[in-house]
């Protein structure tokens, strides 16, 4: 299928982030990249030709013109006209379909000539205003889908944009919509507030299809979303061990809007994990510290609910084990994103843009493309291992590791008082040597060696380095494999332990003298019921 070129016009320096975000979004979206490619002037190689001739030539050759208008007017030629206005005028003369997006609602701070250009565009077509990249990509997505539909190139609309069968406006809750508008207005400065007529509010969010509510509208504001989309429910399970076993001690199925699903699932997890209550020394309320940061737990669930494949009959599953939290959702990463790429700054390519934007406006999600990085940073700051991500068939899995060395776990492992003190020492220092242990508790070298070796064999500690000088121990932060008492550290943890160990060195294998580093192996996933 031949792709059409979208020409993105703006003052380059002012809107460089938005230009890049649109290009990454269009070329990363599974639907849009089938039909479009994006032209950015800054991507052209250097050439011995006048710049104005080049960009106007590309306007002539494009299939669709997208204008991003901000506060600045940009460089002016001898006639006092900027490239952005030249491009708009050329697209107008050539009869190109034009989509205009204006950044910000306050026109007083704009350059007078940019304000005049916005007025000129407004006299010819409908403009859309946006606040940030997330709102812009959602608006462009809706406009491109409408363009494809009106030109007959799109036979079936994307799931989030298509009308929800049998649903009418009366199936949406004005109370839930007003609650969203109130929060979006206070948190993000959204222009519409509570009391906005439902049709106007939905139209502004691109949630109507032929006057009927879209799937996204039902999932966001439906009175009973699961009446139309049963698999959109979230299943939450709590297991006392580290693998799926029936009967399940605690099993809840939550229904409601995507906002309600996130709140309910996050509350389920936080009510089951360990927490420590501090003193009221600094205020009237005692602080509560959870073993997993609530923000990281919520982010994982937001990711699953927002970016899942809603055409699948599978549901999001939130599974809490003794050593970890796993969040499963149907769907795969877009082709332009890799598992390793998630750990680097990356563009936001939401599977369901019309759901992702309201989640951002309601402050359930932060800046586009930053959620995973924020989750990693929060886990690191809380002293727990970094989250892990994997594809398991058609499911995307997020794993957050817990502090598995609870008092109960240490009792089950049969640890004596000295060995429990070792764990406290390693937690405080990050690592411990045989000499550190002797000095801290006034014990002999044979006793220290015996205790440390036993903790190593039981999988509580990981031994770094060869026997002798330089050997030290760090905590096995990821629990015991399959709940097997006394087993060595779980597969996949050694790489993380080496990364955390400041002294480096090889990881010793229980029962053998280690001459070379062991090869890290991947941890197998645990499927839900």
Any overview of this molecule?
It is a single chain. With 529 residues, the chain is of the alpha/beta class. The chain folds into 4 domains: 4-150, Rossmann fold (3-Layer(aba) Sandwich), CATH 3.40.50; 169-225, no CATH class; 230-277 and 287-401, Heat Shock Protein 90; 407-500, Winged helix-like DNA-binding domain superfamily/Winged helix DNA-binding domain (Arc Repressor Mutant, subunit A). Helix content is 37%, strand content 15%. The chain has 18 helices and 17 strands. The strands form 5 sheets. Strands 9-8-12-13-15-14 form a 6-stranded mixed sheet, covered by helices on one side. Strands 2-1-3-4-5 form a 5-stranded parallel sheet, sandwiched between helices. It has a two-stranded antiparallel sheet with strand order 6-7. Strand 16 (461-464) and strand 17 (472-475) form a beta hairpin. Helix 1 packs across helix 5 (133-150) and helix 5 runs antiparallel to helix 12. It is elongated.
List keywords for this structure.
single chain, 529 residues, Rossmann fold, Heat Shock Protein 90, 4 domains, 18 helices, 17 strands, elongated
Strand order, biggest sheet? Answer: 9-8-12-13-15-14
The biggest sheet amounts to: 6 strands, mixed
Assembly state of the chains shown: single chain
**How many E-type strands?**
17
Rg, Å, rounded = 28 Å
- Structural class estimated from helices and strands: alpha/beta
Strand content: 5-15%
Reported by name, the CATH topology of the largest domain is Heat Shock Protein 90
Number of helices: 18
Helix share of residues? 25-40%
**What coarse outline follows from CA principal-axis ratios?**
elongated
In round numbers, the mean pLDDT is 86
Please give the CATH class of the largest domain: Alpha Beta
Total of domains: 4
Which CATH architecture of the largest domain? 2-Layer Sandwich
User: Can you tell me the residue ranges where pLDDT is under 50 for at least 5 consecutive residues?
Assistant: 481-506, 511-529
Distance between the termini: 41 Å
